[in-house]
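task queued by scheduler; priority normal; single chain, no ligands, no partner chains; default sampling; output format set to structure tokens
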Amino acid sequence: MTAASDLKEKQDPSGSSRSIRRLLERRWLVVVLALMFTGLGAALTGVLFKVGIKVLGAWRLELLADLPAWAVLPCLGATGGLVSGLLVSRLAPSAGGSG
């Protein structure tokens, strides 16, 4: 079987594979550039997330060197809970609740 016949067999009844094929035939450069920018954005997000984790970890260790652990750790936990609660309530209010 050829790739074209495989594609026709797996085609969605809504015609989505036909529209994707048409887009690739007409504007393949735009599609390739969009995919490249999506990959670069995902990679940059991952790198920034990893750097942020390292920076916050180093900051936490510096705080623990200067202040007692019984004061720092509960404050950091409460701050993390406050930030995550505000993010959930503002960005995804339907995600709140039990369960």
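post-processing summary
- Residues 21 and 27 are 10 Å apart (CA to CA).
- The mean pLDDT is 84.
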